[in-house]
Write a structure and sequence with these properties.
With 345 residues, the protein is an alpha/beta fold. The chain has one domain (30-344): TIM Barrel. It has nine helices and eleven strands. It has helices at 3-14, 56-60, 94-106, 133-156, 169-174, 176-189, 231-252, 284-297, 333-344, and strands spanning 36-42, 65-68, 71-74, 82-83, 110-113, 116-119, 161-166, 193-199, 214-218, 255-261, 304-313. It is globular. The termini are far apart.
Amino acid sequence: MNTFIRFAVLLMLFGYPSWNCTPSPARLYHYSSTRIKGVNFTAPVKSKDMDSLLFNSVKRINADWVSLIPYAYKGRAAEGISWNHERQFYGEKREGIIHSIGIAKAKGLKVMLKPHLWIMHGIFTGEFVCTTDDEWKKFEKSYEEYILDYARISDSMNVEMLCIGTELNAFITKREKFWDNLIEKVRKVYKGKLTYAENWDKFDNIPFWDKLDFIGVDAYFPLCNAENPDTQMLTLGWKPHIKTLSEVSGRYQKAILFTEFGYRNMNYAAKEPWVTDKNESVNMEVQSSCYTALFDNVWPQPWFAGGFVWKWYDENNFEKEYLPTDYTPQGKPAEKVLEEAFRQY
């Protein structure tokens, strides 16, 4: 029997070799450390609020990380951004951030610094772009100074993680080289872990995930259109998102970190969790169900690093009557869900 006939017989018996099959998917990433259990902390308004009770409520719910947010501001004009000015809350300014880091560290909490850019006149940060190259250069110069300012503070105070931006997708798409250079400069002055916080619908197209330590996602994924969904409905809603998260994690071999996650305690809370200007009827059950579904379906995933609740208030400034359907689970049934889940993980 000649070689060709032998090969033909082998094909009939055993099929085509594996190199003719569809390429295998990216390897699953396994995050080996304990889950990050954190909250995004709302800055104290005044220095007098920075007393020994600060962060006690964070410890009470078994959280071990706190995210502190030094805001910067951008108008529509051609100037750059501004930060650390007298009109800001004390806890958002440089002095307040340093003070907050010190108290958090004294209480045994790990810290992520998560700078946020606030663009005036209601422009969503993810859509912000400059109109000329000169405007871009001014904007980029000031943004770099802003991030490097807090990178140096973070390094000097042994802050465990720095987030280099929050929901700035158009800026990244238009000026990719800027971000590569920024990451390189930050690495020279800061020795801790780096991430970036991208919105839930854009996180799969960020070009520099390979240069960071975590893939950061602000996790306001739509889960269900029902008014009051149960955990089974919410579990079904998570399935396509978990698939995408797993694929992106495997592609870059990086863990996924939810830099923000949360739900309002109102009807339809799982439909569009990112929406802040709708006021449906109060519904404590749906907020609790959303937390339960997230912890049941996402936290056990091997590629998941944990996350930070949006959001948590300093108890000195927490006024329950003003926050009937706010994202915070404080003083609501969802707080017990969070406390138990953080104890478990």
